[in-house]
Every structure is written in structure tokens, then in C-alpha cells.
Amino acid sequence: MTFTIDPSRSLARSILLIRVVTIAGLFCLWEALRLSGFFYEGVLPSTLAVASAIGRELADRSFYQDLGITMLETLVGFCFGSLIGIAAAVGLGVNSYARKMIEPYIIAIGGTPKIIFLPILFLIFGLGIESKMAKAAMSAFFPVVLSCTSGFVQIPPVLLRVGRSFDLTRWQMIRKIYLPAMTNPLLTGLRLGMAMAIIGVLAAEVAYANAGLGFRLMRDADQFRIPSVYAIIILIFAISSAINFAISKLQDRLNRHDKRRGVDSMEIGAAKLLGAD
Amino acid sequence: MQMTLVRTIATRAEGRRRAHYLAPQVAGLLMLAGLLCLLEIAVRYDIIPRTVVARPSDAIAGLVSLENRVDLVSGFFITFGETAAAMLLELVVAVPFGLFLFSRRQFGLAYSGWLAGLFAAPIFLLYPLFLVIFGRNVLTLIIMGFLPGVLPLILQVEQGFLGVPRTLINVGRSFGVTRWQSFRKIMIPAAAPAIFTGFRLALIYTLINIVSVEYLIDIGGLGRIVADRYARFDISGTYTTIIAVTAVSVLFNWIIGQIERRVRPI
């Protein structure tokens, strides 16, 4: 009788062990720092206090109201921003002259801290949820347009030649060749656009709002309810990570036959910075 | 018939020449100028209220005012100093840690996903906590710049070393190089492009987060200037500073791009 060790299983086990030990280590470090007296009292609450604050937040109806407002602002803004971004990318992708003319401006503004445009958005759209939606649209627009335009440029020329040899019209070229060939850059752009839209909305809520998760965080911070601040931050991180993970999984599923995807995302992301927020 | 054909071809060629007569960069500048003129007219004739949008001529004229220039130059140097300090800290932490994640693969596999997830999270939200811990000072801004910047740098250092082609390492072995020589002469040059990309990403994210937190807590350099003008409800001044901060940011990105182009070995 012989025993064989599956190397992938042993690797998975050691990864799990590392993660568990790391989490336990972080807990211990946290508690040690708390008890050390190095920080002001109350700045580092016990992990138990943070856990119970998370429980309290999850049991509180108003948390879901704030979450709903933040999600509404994010989704509406994301839809507007990404639709405009896709339309602009199609226009820039089809017309190389227009791309050379406009793309430098998009890249330039895409790399600036968009929070400085908040005063303009507040002046135009007011201090209500409209300005947060506009901020989400603005944040989502840049990753989507830059990713999709890069996707357009990277379409293999052989596909374009095949389309032309079949005498396809411009609209048929867009529908049958451009759009299917750029599914992956589009999804990469949408994933980053969604992440940026969430960040954009939260930044606007933190700056000025009377509802939403950003407002909730600042209210608790101003009232020095530190365990709740930690709890809200942890919950926001968890929600944004879950959304990002879900879109990544969707992207993997839609692109399971596309071996270029890793390279594409890396190249696009690295080269254009995709409109960091 | 032949003449018509020749004329058609000539007209098309003329059209093509006309289409390319202007360089796209010049056409882009003209388009921008045209849009600003339209906006100027719209604001001047109250089609767009002046309480919402400043006249472009006023906003641009504000750039040459001495008070604004002094404020912007000092703001630029403050933000630049904070960014440089955060970047230094990032390099000290990210390079050894990225190398560790590359050399100990179990750790790399265990932590990379976490780091990538954290990179997509709104890290700037931690600033109220750092305000309480470190106070309302430059240290908070540096830490807030460090955190979002260190993550892409760690990941790119790890990815850079992972992407070194096996063939290069084997060629080194066939020449009997030592481990240190292999690292210095093969691994580092081959991983450099990815590390530079990480450096650029880190720099941009650091700058963006520092400006964001400056805006939100109203201290520091460029971000504070925008918040200050808006708080005074100085519409024209707000637009002036937004244009200036955008220009500084574009200039900063351009300088980084130029440095990268010169320094990048491959």
C-alpha cells in the first residue's frame, strides 16, 4: 500500500495555514498595541468591541437605508458614466484622428485627483444625491473609456481585414467585430469603473452629505464613536470587495476561452492608469 | 468620363489632404479653445448662471494674480514633499516585501489576493482614524499617501520577478553564475519594467490620495487650496484653483512619464 501526497492539496493547506496564522497574528498585535498604552485611550478599541459594533450596525435598519442610498448613487452614476464612456470609446476607437485629438485630454484628466472637481459638481448639481451620482459617473467614465479605447486599438488587424473583405458596414463592424473583440477590456473597465464609482460616491458623501455610508462614517467619527467607525470601514471594505469579486468572477466566466485576458488587463491597467480616482 | 474620374480622385485626395491638414494635437487645442469660447458666451449672456460656472476668462485671469501664484507654488511644494516622503516609505517597505512574496511562493499566493482586494477598497476612508491617532498634521497625510501606494508596488515587484523568463535564468546557470550574480544581472533587469510600472502606479495613487485627504481635512498643499476657495464661496477663485491643480497634476504625470521613459532600461 502506498500513500501519495497531492502537491496542490498540500499547497492549498499551507496557504490556508498562513492566512489563519496571519489573521490570528493581527488580532494579537492589535490587542498588544491596545494594551501597550502607546495610543490614546479609545483610539484602538478591543477587537470584541469592534465585532459587537459590526453586529450592531448590521442589526440597525438605518444602516441599510444609508447603504441603499450609497448603492443607488453608485449604480445610477456608474450606469451613466459607463454608458457615456462606452459610447465615447466606440467613437474614439473607430476614428483614429479623433482619438489622437481627444485621448491626451482624457488621459490627463483621468490621472488627476477627481475630488478637486467636487466643488463644481456641488455648484451645478446641488448638495443632494444628484451631485454624488454625478461624481460616480465622473469616476466611472475614465476607467471605462480608457480601457475600451485601448481594447479597440488592440483588436487584431486580421479581424478588421476579414470584416472589410466581407464589405461590412461601419455599424456591422462595430456590432460583429469591435464589440465581441473588446469584451474583456470592456469588463475590465467596468470592474474598475464600479470600484472608482464607489470610491467617488464615498468621497463626495464624506465631503458633504446628510445620508449614505460616507455620511454615517463621518457622523460617528465626529461623535468619537470609534468602534462604530472601525465597523463601518470594515463593512464598506467588505461590500466593495464583494462587488469587485463578483464582477471579476463574471469576467472570468465570460472570458474563459480568452487566453490574452491577463496580459490585456495588466497592459491596459499599467499603461493608462485607468483614471485613478 | 476619364476626366470625371480624375476629378473625383483629385477631389478625394484633396479632401484627404484637408482632413490631415491640421495635426490632431492642434485640432484638439482648437476644439478646447472653441469650447471655452462657447462657455464664455453662455456665462456672459446668463444662459448658464454665474453663481454656478465662472467665466473662463475670469478663471484663467485668476491664474496670473500674484496671490494665487504664491499660494499654488507653495501648495505644490508641500504636496510634492508629502508625496516624496510617502514614496520613500513605500519603496523601503514594498521592495523587500514583494521580493519576499516572490521567493516564498506560499506567502505570495496567500497574500496577493488580499493585497489586490485591499487595493480596490476605498482606503482613504481610514483618514478619520489616522486623524485621531496621529493628529491633524502632515504625518497623517503621508500615511494616507503611503497606504494606497504601497499595495500596487508590492504586487508589481512580485509580478515582475515572477515574470522573469525561465530561459534567462537557465542561460545564467549554464554560465555558472552565483545566486547573487543571477539576481543582480538577470532577475533585476528583467523585472525592472514591471517594477517601474508599479512605481508609476504607486506615485499616482499616492499623489491622488494625498490631494484628496488635503481637500477633506483642509490642511497641506494643493487639495487645501481648492477647499479654501470653495469655503469662501469664491466661484471664480474655485475654478482658477481647480484649473491650476489639474495643470499641476497633468505636469506631474508628464514628468513621471518622461523620467520613466529615460530611466526604464527595456
Q: Can you tell me about this structure?
A:
The complex is a heterodimer of chains A (277) and B (266). Chain A has helices at residues 7-36, 47-59, 61-94, 96-110, 118-125, 129-153, 157-165, 170-181, 183-207, 213-222, 226-254, 261-272. Chain A has twelve helices and no strands. By secondary structure, chain A is mainly α. Chain A has one domain (46-272): MetI-like (MetI-like fold), CATH 1.10.3720. In chain B, 83% of the residues lie in helices and 0% in strands. Chain B folds into two domains: 2-53, no CATH class; 58-263, MetI-like (MetI-like fold, Orthogonal Bundle), CATH 1.10.3720. Classes of the chains: A mainly alpha (277), B mainly alpha (266). Chains A and B meet through helix 1, helix 4, helix 5, helix 9 and helix 10 of A and helix 2, helix 5, helix 6, helix 9 and helix 10 of B.
Number of helices of chain A: 12
Spell the H/E element sequence of chain A. Answer: HHHHHHHHHHHH
Find the structural class of chain A using helix and strand composition.
Answer: mainly alpha
Strand content of chain A: under 5%
The structural domain count of chain A equals 1
Rg of chain B: 26 Å
Q: What percent of residues of chain B are in strands? A: under 5%
Uncertain spans of chain B, ≥5 residues at pLDDT below 50? none
On the 0-100 scale, what is the average pLDDT of chain B? Answer: 83
CATH class assignment of the largest domain in chain B: Mainly Alpha
- In round numbers, the mean pLDDT of chain A is 84
CATH architecture tag of chain A? Orthogonal Bundle
Global shape of chain B:
elongated
What class, by secondary structure content of chain B? mainly alpha
Major sheet characteristics of chain B: none
- Provide the succession of SSEs of chain B: HHHHHHHHHHH
The CATH topology of the largest domain in chain B is given as MetI-like fold
Q: Return the CATH topology of chain A.
A: MetI-like fold
Estimate the global geometry of chain A from the Cα principal axes: globular
DSSP, total strands of chain A = 0
